[in-house]
Write a structure and sequence with these properties.
The protein is mainly α. The chain is 63% helix and 4% strand. The protein starts with 11 loop residues before the first helix and ends with a helix. Bound molecules: arginine. Arginine binds next to helix 6.
């Protein structure tokens, strides 16, 4: 492509380190689409003659058809997908192919292709996240009133409902959806026409190419257009954040599926066995979702470190932008699909959850609140009285609501038998009606609101 200036070809290692085709061939559809929009604009502006435009466009279609059938080879001599497509075009239509690159550089071309690819990836992630959200909402509805222990420090804290717990993940997924949508809106500007870095002297129409490729308009500054990779970093940031959420849910599944918890059995489809221990049902998919979050975060860090300190405009370092985004996308797509499958098919052991919720003195706060409400005891003092009640129950080996009233009145005479109304786990969750609280009616209202927000 630059033979005029060079007497010798590249060293083999130069060729290898320089080539991006092994990974950027993944953008071949975007590359062809960008070239077709560009040549149509060159024709409309009278920069390339109509018959050449027709030949180039038909040739690009043939090149694309070839890629679709045979795949794209790792042709290191061609360096990247942009060069290979142009070479294939020249094979197909002859010298007219040489007019395609008028008023364009690979710098604005690759920035355009990569934005298009990232936009498609974002749309795929959004669809997958909405499917995950559907299954979270469905399972939350099913378990709006199923009591489980709520934890802080992984110690039994207060009873909550499983529906409420799953709706916490709905909130995370909803924020992920909003983050990916914000990214898409911000990134949807077209760098094509920035050329190498300074713009071009040809009378191009950047609005036209932007519109043809579904962008909201052209990017504003030619230097920024070819050196900006914020759209890729934004994708990775959202992907890492999303992966982190999935990883927390995956970790809960790993814990819950363990025998000491026994809160969930993963379906056969989402478990693996052991080659030596016949009793095993391992939550490998959940563990891998947890693991993939680390790799996705690594992808984000990788591109941040690549970009930091690069002077304007394009530097070849930026060729390294694509592998982390591709890798993160593949890992994220798998992770979302796997979590969706696990959430959909899990069997929640609600009797076990209830038994543990009842065993950890989880309604102690309800006793303290009762003293505040019914006996006008200051909360700090109520806390102390309740602590003694818990210690007594523990010493007798009974739950708080099985402590005889004489035991309670011995600790504080202001307690009377009405207190038992608040000491059951059902009463506890039903009482938590403050906005955002775990009462089953609140959970159902939250699910309705979530569905309305989606509609
Ligand atoms: N393969 C290159 C990349 O992915 C395309 C841009 C090359 N531009 C250049 N000035 N060498 O970044």
């Amino acid at each position: 492509m630059w033979g005029g200036r060079f007497a010798a070809g590249p060293a083999a290692v130069m060729r290898e380190i320089n080539a991006s085709i092994p990974f950027d061939k993944r953008m071949w559809k975007q590359d062809v689409a960008g070239s077709r929009a560009h040549v149509a604009m060159l024709g409309a502006q009278g920069i390339v003659a109509a018959d050449d435009v027709r030949a180039i466009d038909a040739g690009l279609e043939r090149v694309a058809a070839g890629y679709a059938v045979d795949g794209v080879p790792d042709d290191l001599a061609m360096e990247d997908i942009h060069m290979l497509t142009e070479a294939r075009l020249a094979d197909a239509i002859g010298p007219a192919a040489g007019r395609l690159h008028t008023a364009r550089s690979r710098n604005d071309q690759v920035a355009t292709d990569f934005r298009l690819w990232t936009r498609d990836a974002t749309d795929q992630v959004l669809a997958a996240l909405l499917a995950l959200d559907d299954s979270l909402l469905a399972r939350a509805e099913e378990h709006a009133a199923s009591v489980m222990p709520g934890f802080t420090h992984l110690q039994s804290a207060q009873p909550v409902t499983l529906g409420h717990h799953l709706m916490a993940y709905h909130e995370m997924v909803a924020r992920d959806v909003s983050r990916f949508r914000d990214n898409r809106a911000r990134a949807n500007l077209c760098p094509l026409g920035a050329a190498a870095l300074a713009g071009t002297g040809f009378p191009i129409d950047r609005e036209a190419t932007a519109a043809a490729l579904g962008f909201d308009g052209p990017t504003r500054n030619s230097l920024d257009s070819v050196s900006d990779r914020d759209f890729a970093l934004d994708y990775l940031m959202a992907a890492a954040q999303c992966a982190l959420h999935l990883s927390r849910l995956a970790e809960e599944f790993v814990l819950w599926a363990s025998q000491p918890f026994g809160f969930v059995s993963l379906s056969d489809q989402w478990s693996t066995g052991s080659s030596i221990m016949p009793q095993k049902r391992n939550p490998d998919a959940a563990e891998l979702v947890r693991g993939h979050a680390g790799r996705i975060t690594g992808c984000l860090v990788s591109l941040m470190v690549t970009m930091k300190g690069l002077p304007l405009a394009y530097s070849k370092d930026m060729q390294d932008d694509k592998p982390p985004v591709f890798e993160a996308h593949d890992l994220l797509a798998l992770s979302i699909a796997a979590m969706t499958g696990m959430v959909e098919s899990a069997t929640f052991r609600t009797d076990r959850m209830r038994a543990l919720a009842e065993s950890g003195f989880a309604t102690a706060t309800d006793l303290a609140d009762w003293l505040v409400r019914e006996a006008n005891v200051p909360f700090r003092e109520a806390h102390h009285i309740t602590g003694r009640a818990v210690a007594r129950a523990e010493a007798l080996g009974v739950a708080l609501d099985a402590l005889p009233i004489v035991e309670l009145t011995a600790i504080d005479p202001r307690i009377d038998a009405r207190v038992y109304d608040v000491l059951s786990v059902d009463a506890s969750v039903a009482s938590r009606r403050s906005f955002g609280g775990t009462a089953p009616d609140n959970v159902r209202a939250a699910i309705r609101a979530a569905r309305e927000a989606r509609a």
